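Quick one: structure tokens for this chain, please?
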Amino acid sequence: MTEYLSEKLGGRRILVTGGAGFIGSEVAQQLCQQGSKVTVFDDFSSGKIEYVSSLDDITVVRGDVCDRKEVASSVKDQEIAIHLAALPFIPDSYYYPEDFFRVNTMGSVNIVWQSIQSESVERLVHVSSSEVYGTALYTPMDEKHPTLPHSTYAVSKLAADRAVFAMHKEHRYPVVIVRPFNSYGPKVTQPYIVPEIASQLLNGRNPLELGNVNAIRDFTYVEDTARAIILASIEKQAVGETINVGTGVGVRISDLAMLMAKILGKEVNIHIDENRVRPYDVEKLICDFSKARRILNWSPKISLDEGFRMTLDWLRSHPARYETPFAGWPRVYRRSRY
């Protein structure tokens, strides 16, 4: 697989929006390892320069995906565009819906349109989210599952998906939509559930303060997620497709917490903090990745146990640090925990 990727990606000029973020920085790193010439485009509202600054043959551009001139300049002469830039933290979207639609929806439209106009970008990979499906009506969830988003964030991502697909059809422009289920791993940028539980465990908190512990999620190690996104950028059969990326295994949040505690050799209890329960929360997400296996020849390689061990090791030496681009409830929510 490594030789195949190097053959396909070596020397290729690739733009990664949101490339200093959690998944984006892993995508950038893997591309650099294959010999690609990577341009990271990021506004650093949550991405971190240290996540990409040490990579070889990389160009870093600070910019806004909603700015036409900045995006047009960055896509110029690129061969592939991988679009990950987004406002990702769901609780922020409750209070700043306009920002989420501006960045996640209109920013995506701008990226696609400027890529089309560039006449150099041969393919665009648009990274969506499993959140667009809402709570599972059946499991595992394939790409035909109805889209019933439960949050403003998810609606903004689904609107982007629809726009990207329509522009693909209207302009016969090669686009792939990738829908990762919950990714976790090093280089976190947001207080998602895995780094949240890890931070509490590493700080010695007992009982753990959690919200909806009965929710079930499909956790994919970020290295696997990034590999799927990269494969989507080169496989011919992927063009025009929406492809789910996950493990097919559902994990209840309470079980997740206990597994992480076991890895650390800790015995803990859980206290339900009603302030942490999200309104209209998604109860279950479990991925059917058979399409990714068929089209991308992809399947997850990192087990939950191995992935959590690597994540916890990283967080021991890199205590979670999150940016706070918004004020109001999300900031209070974050500040109350650290």
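The longest helix spans residues 97-118.
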